[in-house]
Design goal:
There is one protein chain. The chain is mostly beta strands. About 5% of the residues lie in helices and about 35% in strands. The chain contains 1 helix and 5 strands, in the order αβββββ. The longest helix is centred in the first third of the chain and has 4 residues.
Length: about 60
Amino acid sequence: MMEAEDVNTLMLFGGLHYEHLIGDKSGLSSVRVNKQYRIEFTESTENGAKVANICNIVELSNHYK
């Protein structure tokens, strides 16, 4: 994620399953750590590109339980 130019680059890596969340998690995005956990994070715009605020991890969740 650190090497990605912007969040759109995350879509190129299918294993991350990058997505915008909906419902009570609207406004957050996520990537998978593994089959059990995901990182939820906020995004911001810097120099016209949408970037992940990975220093603001909202939750490392086991949301499949």
